[in-house]
Structure formats: structure tokens, C-alpha cells
Amino acid sequence: MTEAHPSGFTVVGNHLAQHRGLSCLAIGLAVHIQSLRDGSPVDIRSLTERFPEGRDRFAAASASWRGTAIWNGAGNGSPTAPGPP
């Protein structure tokens, strides 16, 4: 865990990793989305095809992001992974 990785990694800020207002699922989901390539689909359907958690759990996790700096939806109900800042 402490080895340097020259490529293929995502930096996760402590503000997300230690966010007291989010569940472990919401944090993990946000980290997964941050790790995706720009434009990757991250809608509920795509997530349920990728992970065993169901639609309701992903919907609740993503709903908990609203009103936080984590939410970066596209505004059309089908958000995509954000590109680098």
C-alpha cells in the first residue's frame, strides 16, 4: 500500500475518503467514478451491471452526494465520469 505507482492510479482526497456525511458505499462509489476515464457511463443501470449492489442502494448512495462538492452530474439524469480538474 505504500509503494509508489507510476501509472494507473487515482488520487483520492481525504475530504472524500473521510467524509462523515456519506456512507461507505457512497464513498466507494464516488472513488470508483473518479477512477473512470472521462465520459464513462456512471448511470444507475451501468453501475448495477458492473457491481452486485442493486439499483436502490446505488440510487441512495448517489442521492447522498447531492448538495456536496462530490456531485458532478451532467444534469440530464445520466451523469458521466468527470474529467480531470
Determine the fraction of residues in helical runs and give it as a percent range.
25-40%
If you average the pLDDT, what whole number results? 79
Helix-and-strand structural type: mainly alpha
Distance between the termini: 25 Å
Q: How do the SSEs run, as a string of H and E? A: HHHH
Task: Please give the oligomerization state of what you see.
Answer: single chain
What coarse outline follows from CA principal-axis ratios? globular
Which regions have little confidence, pLDDT < 50, spanning 5+ residues? 73-85
3D structure, described in words:
By secondary structure, this protein is mainly α. The chain has a domain at 14-63. The chain has four helices and no strands. The two termini are 25 Å apart.
In short:
This protein is mostly helical and 85 residues long.
Please tag this protein with its features.
single chain, 85 residues, mainly alpha, 4 helices, 38% helix, globular, disordered C terminus
